[in-house]
Automatic annotation (TrEMBL):
Name this polypeptide is given: Putative phospholipase D3-like
Compositional bias segments (type: Polar residues): 160-169
Region (Disordered): 1-25, 38-121, 135-320
Domain PLD phosphodiesterase: 493-520, 709-735
Matching SUPFAM superfamilies: Phospholipase D/nuclease
Family membership: Belongs to the phospholipase D family.
């Protein structure tokens, strides 16, 4: 209609321009057409502008390019476009303007073969174009000018671009943005046209923006357009376009593309409201986070939009994968630890061969140890070096030390809950002998105290060697409530239980050479150690007793495949207990023999003796009944030079003084003295090793000689310039390889000794030197053939 009112000259110039434009159809840039339009007659343009101003003042819309309008507050969150209402004149006028753009003249100028350029229904197209291009139009006046220029150039530019749509009239401005996201750019014709138009329109954006801000309260068409354009963000700035949607937009028609883009804009609007509503909350689950980032869509949303069932499935899959990974990380280390522990167990102990063995293996030290809590224990101990002196020995100088019998009675008087005794045999009364007379008085007294323990509520447990030659005492004690187990160690190691150990209330204990025999209290010379109020050490001694008790249990004569944690050593040569013996600091540990029945962590008794000798710097004093570098009770005889070699090395290479006190009685092995003489030979030049040996003999009357296994020095201890060792074993091979025995090492070297205090080492040294210099000893001669006439041959 506007073209019909134009002057004839203008129509001629326009026709000429069209003909000239047809000549350059091979050009691909719309900038040429726009430049020629700028050369039009200024008068014609001015006249056209005045007519358009008059139309605008009359209430008619002037812009041929529709702008989007802002949604009313409280509008539905649906993605459907708002339907123009009769009571909204601003919104109702824009579709009319859009209808004017699709004039008959323009439709005739459009090539018939370009079906993609058909304009959609005005009621749908208006808001979608506005939504997709908010940043290009901000001024109604400038928009009118641009629309007129675009209408004149549209027929030719459309023909040049083919299927490419004019960016000002198509449904989306995204072609300028999508190439950055991996989309192929459109043809150059539409792209150049977009650039030219944008260059002419953009400079007035800020000016029109200021005008719209000043007229914010008015309801005119211009104010609503500018306000919406300035406030609303482009959808591509909030959410990137899905690649699948990009492909669909290329292959679909204009209307389908515009609907998809409008839906995305609605999604952005929905997202803004959801974000404001949940601004103060922190979503903790993965699904909730995804739900906030991709708001729920209505039924009109296309499948490619965010928040579709495919995305929800992906979220669920991600959550499931995360949970699976967490469970895997928790289960895998646990499985590896169990497999590793089981493998280590099988490596050490083999596979269980029966259900009973499997049940027993459940007490494996590193499994049972989880439930074990160390009990508090006392470290300030009272210690007494005790001895038994046979009747008639040292009559003129009675010993100032407590006797072993008195120490046993004292421990029984202090017993409140338990008494554990490990012994070679039990003959505390002289009923087995007719000529015992009154020398068994001390033994009988101890036996009566043991019988009374049950009535006092004290539990008595006794582990003795099997078989017993006399069971009179143990049977009577069992009748009073004591538990007695005969340990068949012969079936296990080929040896016997030679240990002499008492443990009272897990607080006090005795260790020494005295057997549970009335002779050991009155007819045999013995040395031992009584320790009181020393639960740290007493608990460790109780574990040694527990080993014997375990061997003599339901499966007597067999060893378990392992030793459980409750029997593991609490002290060793590497980790001694740090205690105080009579106020003097001491490092103490217990050792045991043989290795087959030594629980986890327990130092071997033979290794202990060798280490004590090797640690000596000045002297080594040894008092032992038998010293024999042979296997004493097995056939054929085996040479066993372990201790003998260590003593030779100490005396001949380190200059340590070695003093050896051995016993002579009717059961002494004759070979022992020959080996001892071989040591004495080292005293001769040029070696001159400092080795000296004496033989101790307990005098006996005619009546005393009738008492079997009596009148002998039965002590087994060693003292050096650094430590003291008190044991229960004789020094020959079988006692350390097959027979059960116990040793105790006390090291108080370098400890501060106050006035009136004395170290255990100094007490043991005095005891040894008393016997060494007594009238009951005789020096061993290298040339003597009958050293011990009463000894066995």
């Amino acid at each position: 209609m506007e073209r019909a009112q134009s002057p004839p000259d203008e129509l001629e110039e326009e026709a000429a321009a069209a003909e000239e434009e047809a000549d350059v159809t091979d050009l691909k840039h719309c900038s040429v057409l726009l430049n020629r339009l700028q050369a039009d007659d200024k008068a014609a343009r001015k006249e056209l502008d005045e007519k358009e101003d008059m139309n605008r003042k009359g209430g008619k819309p002037v812009s041929r390019i529709p702008t989007f309008f802002k949604r009313p507050s409280g509008a539905s969150q649906s993605t459907e476009l708002p339907v123009p209402k009769k009571d909204t004149p601003v919104q109702a006028s824009e579709p009319q303007d859009d209808a004017g753009c699709g004039s008959v003249e323009a439709s005739k100028a459009k090539p018939p073969d370009v079906r993609d350029m058909a304009l959609p229904v005005p009621s749908v197209r208006v808001p979608k174009i506005g939504l997709e291009a908010p940043s290009l139009f901000s001024s109604p006046e400038k928009a009118a000018t641009t629309a007129h220029s675009s209408q004149i150039a549209a027929p030719k530019s459309w023909g040049l671009s083919g299927s490419v749509q004019n960016p000002l009239l198509t449904a989306s401005p995204r072609p300028a943005i999508r190439p950055e996201q991996g989309q192929k750019p459109q043809e150059d014709t539409a792209e150049k046209s977009d650039v030219e138009v944008e260059e002419k329109i953009t400079p007035t954006a800020s000016e029109d923006s200021n005008k719209s801000e000043s007229a914010e309260g008015s309801h005119t068409t211009e104010v609503g357009q500018v306000d919406v354009i300035m406030d609303e963000e482009a959808p591509w700035e909030k959410e990137p376009m899905n690649i699948l949607e990009l492909k669909d937009s290329r292959s679909s028609s204009d209307a389908e593309s515009e609907e998809s883009l409008a839906d995305e804009k609605s999604e952005v609007h929905d997202f803004e409201e959801v974000k404001e509503h949940h601004e103060a909350h922190i979503v903790q689950s993965e699904f909730s986070e995804v739900a906030e980032e991709r708001p729920e869509m209505d039924e009109s949303t296309t499948p490619v939009a965010a928040g579709t069932p495919a995305d929800v499935g992906s979220t669920k899959s991600t959550k499931s994968s995360g949970c699976s990974g967490f469970v895997f990380l928790c289960i895998l280390p646990t499985t590896l630890l169990l497999l590793g522990g089981f493998g280590q167990h099988v490596w050490h102990y083999g596979l269980p061969s029966s259900v009973a063995q499997l049940t027993a293996q459940l007490e494996l030290h590193w499994l049972e140890g989880f439930g074990l809590v160390p009990e508090p224990c006392s470290t300030d101990c009272r210690v007494h070096l005790v001895e038994s002196i046979p009747v008639g020995l040292y009559p003129s100088s009675p010993s100032s030390r407590r006797s072993i019998a008195d120490s046993w009675l004292h421990l029984l008087d202090r017993a409140n809950s338990s008494v554990h005794i490990a012994a070679f045999y039990f003959t505390l009364r002289g009923g087995d002998l007719e000529n015992a007379d009154s020398s068994d008085a001390q033994g009988r007294k101890v036996f009566e105290h043991l019988k009374q323990l049950e009535s006092k509520g004290v539990k008595l447990q006794i582990a003795v060697n099997s078989p017993q030659k006399s069971t009179q005492d143990t049977s009577e004690l069992a009748a009073t409530g004591a538990e007695v187990r005969e340990v068949d160690l012969q079936a296990v190691t080929g040896g016997i239980v030679h240990t002499k150990l008492w443990v009272v209330d897990q607080k006090h204990f005795y260790l020494g050479s005295a057997n549970m025999d009335w002779r050991s209290l009155s007819q045999v010379k013995e040395v031992g150690l009584s320790v009181e109020d020393c639960s740290c050490l007493a608990q460790d001694a109780s574990r040694i007793f527990g080993v014997y008790w375990s061997v003599g249990g339901a499966h007597n004569g067999s060893l378990p495949p392992y030793w459980p944690a409750r029997l593991s050593a609490l002290s060793s040569s590497q980790n001694p207990l740090r205690l105080k013996f009579n106020g003097v600091p001491a490092q103490v540990y217990l050792s045991s023999a043989p290795p087959q029945i030594s629980a986890r962590g327990r130092t071997d008794d033979l290794s202990t003796i060798l280490s004590v000798i090797g640690d000596a710097q000045k002297f080594v004093y040894i008092s032992v009944m038998d010293y024999l570098p042979l296997s004493q009770f097995t056939e054929p005889l085996r040479f066993w030079p372990a201790i003998d070699t260590t003593l030779r090395a100490a005396a001949c290479t380190r200059g340590v003084q070695v003093r050896l006190l051995v016993s002579c009685w009717e059961h002494s092995p004759a070979a022992m003295f020959t080996f001892l003489q071989s040591l004495l030979v080292l005293n001769r030049p040029p070696l001159k090793c400092d080795i000296d040996i004496k033989i101790f003999t307990v005098p006996s009357t005619a009546e005393q000689r009738k008492i079997p296994f009596a009148r002998v020095n039965h002590a087994k201890y060693m003292v050096t310039d650094r430590v003291v060792y008190i044991g229960t074993s004789n020094w020959s091979e079988n006692y350390f390889s097959q027979t059960a025995g116990v040793g105790l090492v006390v090291n108080q070297t370098g400890s501060d000794v106050g006035e009136g205090q004395q170290t255990l080492q100094s007490q043991a040294e005095e005891l040894f030197l008393r016997d060494w210099t007594s009238q009951y000893t005789s020096a061993l001669s290298v040339d003597s053939l009958d050293v011990c006439p009463r000894g066995r041959h």
